[in-house]
Amino acid sequence: MKKQDVERELLSQLLRSGAGIAANLSEAVYESRRRDFFSKPRIVLKEYSGTHARPKLLRATGSLTETESSSVNQDSTEIPKMLISINKPTQQAQPDSY
């Protein structure tokens, strides 16, 4: 596979994943069913865990500069902290059964 094809695929995956994360968070805010409201933050955290390696791969291919890579890396460490902080209260408030 050519370098440009690899870069394009990684960027496409990163974009889709980021859009999926944003969509799930948005759905959680407007979710009418309690069960779905509690499940969305966990789904987002799982989605994120599959996403965070892609910027490192983009840096390795030279698609990101050192400055861009550093910025993305900083964001990548903050995002899971926020997701975990969202997840904790929802897990505590979650009903025992659906």
TrEMBL record:
It comes from the Bacteria. It holds the Pfam family 23S_rRNA_IVP. SUPFAM superfamilies: IVS-encoded protein-like (SSF158446). InterPro entries: 23S_rRNA-intervening_sequence (IPR012657), 23S_rRNA_IVS_sf (IPR036583). Residues 59-98 are annotated as: Disordered. Residues 62-77, 87-98 have a biased composition (Polar residues). This is Four helix bundle protein. It comes from Akkermansia muciniphila (strain ATCC BAA-835 / DSM 22959 / JCM 33894 / BCRC 81048 / CCUG 64013 / CIP 107961 / Muc).
